[in-house]
Amino acid sequence: MFQKIKNIYHLFQAILANLWYRFPSRQLKVIGVTGTDGKTTTTHLIAHLLKSVGKKTSFISSIYAYIGGEEYDLGFHVTTPSPFAIQKFLRRSADHGDEFFVLETTSHALDQNRVWGVKYEIGVLTNISHEHLDYHVTYEEYANTKIRLLKSARKSVINKDDSSTKYIKSQLKGLKCYYYSARNKPIDQIENITEFNKENYAAAYTVAKLLKISDEKILKSIASFQLPKGRLEIVYDKEFKIIVDFAHTPNAFENLLPEIKQMHLGQKGKLIHVFGSAGLRDSMKRPFMGQSSSRYSDRIILTEEDFRTEKFKDICSQIASGIKKDLPYEIIEDREQAILKAVLTAKKGDIVLLTGKAHEKSLCRGKKEYPWNEYEAVNNAISKLKS
């Protein structure tokens, strides 16, 4: 009941915001990107591609908003902001003379009517996997919420390789959809694209083709793309490597970890994985996170990741229930201490993988947000390693 009232409130706010800012999305070609994993990378990639070919473009992602040539911080744990913030940014973009606006669009924003009134030219769905069932309750409801974006867009771009595609097709009968695949021959021409990112690149490629951009320009642009902050980011590369990534779902682990082992781990090196799971979020995914990590990791350190008002030990217990019985793991609540332990015990050729926080600037403990910087924690650990 409370959620329905909240959704009505957001709808009222969205209507007012559209009226106040004069429906700015009607002056732009808005490309919405939704999905469980890959939204941020795909959003940044599409924006980079459009800017590279001379198109005036703004965007909003979970990392920051880039509007009219300026960057804006969105605050703690924000991907798709409030209705008034969205419409304000769209208005600034339109007034700046932009042609395109790329909007990372969450299922929460869709369900809560925060993007009501946004006129989407293209809707992109990267995938649907185990996440946010604390909110949506069932997979079908979660999928149907994301499908709203596709139904509201003039053209829909969908990942043919994802396990959710069959269900999505059944819900989109009669609508014109375009499908992409990681097995995209033009994408294979580009060097240094990680396997698990190929789907994101293929999505951006498909969007660009719908916008009548030539293969030559698309591939040149993609080749110059740098992954966003906290996406497969190597932050230390000497006697061992430290990699930071935002992965926080079983599906993301299944794609990321084997890729890291194949690309970066030597024959004698070990993979040390430091991660946790957010409190008051999809608890059902936790055993699968433990299972996925233990399939590829040689050692696991479970730590905090915004446990909120849940008991930290309960979260770890749920993750640990999926970890293979013969795999060593330990629990260190303080994330900085967990990172320090991983770094101090890493040996030559090892990889320390830190997932779940990446670019985020706070840790939520109880009902309070505490300042957090994953990169500072890494630097502090390295300093103590060398002292």
Number of domains: 2
Note the main sheet: 8 strands, mixed
Q: End-to-end span in angstroms?
A: 56 Å
Portion of residues in beta strands equals 15-25%
- Global morphology: globular
Give the number of helices.
Answer: 15
Would you kindly provide a written description of the structure presented here, covering whatever features stand out?
The protein has 387 residues and is α/β, with parallel strands linked by helices. The chain folds into two domains: 2-223, Mur-like, catalytic domain (UDP-N-acetylmuramoyl-L-alanine:D-glutamate ligase), CATH 3.40.1190.10; 233-386, Protein-Tyrosine Phosphatase, Chain A, CATH 3.90.190. Helix content is 42%, strand content 18%. It contains 15 helices and 16 strands. The protein has helices at 2-20, 39-52, 83-95, 107-111, 133-136, 139-152, 165-171, 185-188, 198-210, 215-223, 250-264, 286-296, 312-320, 335-345, 374-386, and strands at 29-34, 57-60, 65-67, 70-72, 100-104, 120-125, 155-159, 177-180, 233-237, 241-245, 271-275, 299-302, 329-331, 351-355, 362-365, 368-371. The strands form three sheets. Strands 4-3-2-5-1-6-7-8 form an eight-stranded mixed beta sheet, sandwiched between helices. The chain has a six-stranded mixed beta sheet with strand order 9-10-14-11-12-13, with helices on both faces. Strand 3 and strand 4 form a beta hairpin. Helix 14 (335-345) packs across helix 15. The radius of gyration is 21 Å and the shape is globular.
Notable features of this structure?
alpha/beta; 16 strands; six-stranded mixed sheet; 2 domains; about 40% helix; eight-stranded mixed sheet; about 375 residues; Protein-Tyrosine Phosphatase, Chain A; UDP-N-acetylmuramoyl-L-alanine:D-glutamate ligase
